[in-house]
Every structure is written in C-alpha cells, then in structure tokens.
Amino acid sequence: MQINQEKTEKRFDRHGNPHNRTKLLNILRGAVFPSAVIVVWELAARSSLVNTYILPPPSEILKTFLHMLATGIWEEHLLASLRRLVYGFFLTVVFAVPMGILVGKVRGFRHWVNPTLHFLQQIPPIAWIPIFMLLLGIDEASKVAVIVYASFFPVFLNTVQGVTSVDPKLIEVGHAYMLTPWEMVKKVYIPSAAMSIFVGLRLGLSNCWRALVGAELLGASSGIGYLIIEGRQLAQSDKIFVAMFTIGAAGMLIDFFLRKIENKLMPWKKMYQAGERK
C-alpha cells in the first residue's frame, strides 16, 4: 500500500499538478516568445519593413532548409561537425577527468600545474586556431585540437572541485578498509564527485560545440561553420540562418541527451536537489 502511495505521489509536482501536464505547460510557455518573434518577423518581411536580402522571412528559410534536407546537403555538413565533436570531446574526457582527479587528490601536484593551467585558461580557443593550423595543418587535427582546448578547462576544473569537496569521513572510511589508491578513486572519489564532473562535462560539451563552429568558420570544407561562410560568400543569408538555427537546435539536443544520461547514471541527483530546495 505504501509503495502504491509513493508511486501516486510521484505523478504530481509540488503544486498538485500531474508531472506530464506540467511539462507540457512549460513547453508551451517556452514556445510563446519564439513563436511571436517568428510571426512578427514574417509579417515585417512580407510588408517590406525589413531588408529581405539581409533578413529573409522565416518561410524562405524553411524552404531553404527543406531543400537542403531533401538533397542531403544539411545532413552531410551536420554529420561532419558531429564527428569532429565526438572525437574532440572523447579526447577531452580521456585527458581532463584523470588529470582533474590527480590534481584534486594530490595537493603537492596542484602547486606545480595550477599557475600554468590558470595562464592557459585566460587564452580564448579562437586565438589558438592559427597556431594549431601551422602545427597540425588545415585538416581535421587542428579542428579537434581547438575542441579539446575549449572543453578541457570546464571538465578539468569541475573534476578538481568535485574531488576536493569529497567528505573527509568517506576518505577515512576508505583508508580504514585499506583500499588501494585505485580503489579509493573508483569507490570514493569518482562517486562523490560525479555530479560536479557531469556539470563540467555539460559545460565542456557546450564549449566544444561553439569552438568547433568557430574553427570551421576559419578553415573547413565541410561542417555547419562552413555553411555560414558559404552563405556569406554566395550572399545567401537564408543559408546562414539555416546554419545558425542548426547550431542552436543541435546544441540544445546534445545538452538534453547528456542530462538524460546524467539522470540515468545518478538517480540520486533529484533527491539531492530536492533536499537543497527544502
């Protein structure tokens, strides 16, 4: 009886509304403003209140998108960008998370690397693009390097923050059970720092996506950034807007799926956040 009652309670939010209904209402509320902007934009373009050469109506942008979708051009450029994103973000996780755990766990090592990392953190990724191109060429390696640099610091710093915030009592328990250093990392540090690490992953992935488009703007023959350059060179502003909307929509979807993965791997997160709100 108690289990059924708990399941029934979970279907309602704190205002007494069903969760599904609340989610639908939130989606509708979030769609009001962009819908209004699109309607006003379309009417202004149709009434010649704006220069349609620079600001084409949304209906024309939609036609261009559907044409690019039908011919396969849109998928080709999107997949090229996503491949670079996957390679770069994978390398970031491989380097940034272990290094963050090491720096957070070994305080002596932190003093050796902190000044250098703090200095590098101040340099924007776009400033490194010419150097990466000279060192790695104009092919994929330079773009992946920009992605890794852009996403490294959010992942690294949040991992360090999570590891240094581990409850000392948990560390003492680990030592009492005579866990090896690797077991301490696996059973104490990583589970305790998981939420902070995932925050860094989300920030890093967002930085990845923006830096990738920036790198493609400066030197690429495919990708969403290249679409923007091509649209500018051919004076096709509708193609530029298709690329811009793709960047925003793809970024939102990537973050959405990462949050879903986070909730699956850390089911206790919602209870933790609910406790904080109380």
Automatic annotation (TrEMBL):
Main location as per UniProt: membrane
ABC transmembrane type-1 domain: residues covered: 78-258
Pfam assignment, any one: BPD_transp_1
PROSITE patterns (UniProt xref): ABC_TM1 (PS50928)
Membrane-related topology note: Multi-pass membrane protein
Keyword terms, alphabetized: Cell membrane, Membrane, Transmembrane, Transmembrane helix, Transport
Transmembrane segments: 85-104, 116-138, 144-167, 188-205, 211-229, 241-258
Claim: Cell division is one of the keywords in the record: no
Listed PANTHER family: ALIPHATIC SULFONATES TRANSPORT PERMEASE PROTEIN SSUC-RELATED, ALKANE SULFONATE ABC TRANSPORTER-RELATED, MEMBRANE SUBUNIT
Protein name: Nitrate/sulfonate/bicarbonate ABC transporter permease
Organism of this sequence: Dehalobacter restrictus (strain DSM 9455 / PER-K23)
